[in-house]
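Quick one: structure for this chain?
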Amino acid sequence: RHIALNLLKQEKTAKGGLHAKQLQAAWNNDYLCKILAVGI
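Got it. Here's what it folds into:
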């Protein structure tokens, strides 16, 4: 869980808080891939 939250905090392209980013990642696979790519 900490890893996922840290990746969301590092992702700066989308506006909004962590909850909004979590929802967007759940709905949008492209955004989820972008978040996961931040960690690489």
